Amino acid sequence: MKKPRATAATSGPDGLAPASDVAAIVAGTHGDPFAVLGVHEVGKSLYARCFVPHAEFVTAYTLTGTIAGELSRRDDGGFFEGKLSIRKRQPLRYHARNAGGDWWLTDPYSFGPVLGPMDDYYIAQGSHLRLFDKLGAHVIDHEGASGVHFAVWAPNARRVSVVGDFNEWDGRRHTMRDRRDTGIWELFVPDIGAGRPYKYEIIGPDGVRLPLKADPFAFKSELRPATASVVAVPPAHEWGDEAHRNFWRNADHRREAISIYEVHAGSWQLHDDGTFLSWDELADRLIPYVVETGFTHIEFMPISEHPYDPSWGYQTTGLYAPSARFGDPDGFARFVDGAHRAGVGVILDWVPAHFPVDAHGLANFDGTALYEHADPRKGFHPDWNTAIYNFGRREVVSFLVNNALFWAEKYHVDGLRVDAVASMLYLDYSRKAGEWIPNEKGGRENLEAVSFLQKMNKEVYGHHPGVMTIAEESTSWPKVSAPVHEGGLGFGFKWNMGFMHDTLEYFSKEPIFRKHHHNDLTFGLTYAFSENFVLPLSHDEVVHGKGTLLGKMAGDDWQKFATLRAYYAFMWGYPGKKLLFMGQEFAQRREWSEARALDWNLLEFRPHRGVWQTVRDLNYLYRSRPALHGRDCEPEGFSWLIVDDSQNSVFAWLRSAPGGNPVAVISNFTPVPRDNYRVPLPTAGKWREIINTDASEYGGSGKGNGGMVEARAEGGSISATMLLPPLSTIMLELVAD
Question: Which residues are catalytic?
Answer without folding.
Answer: 419, 472
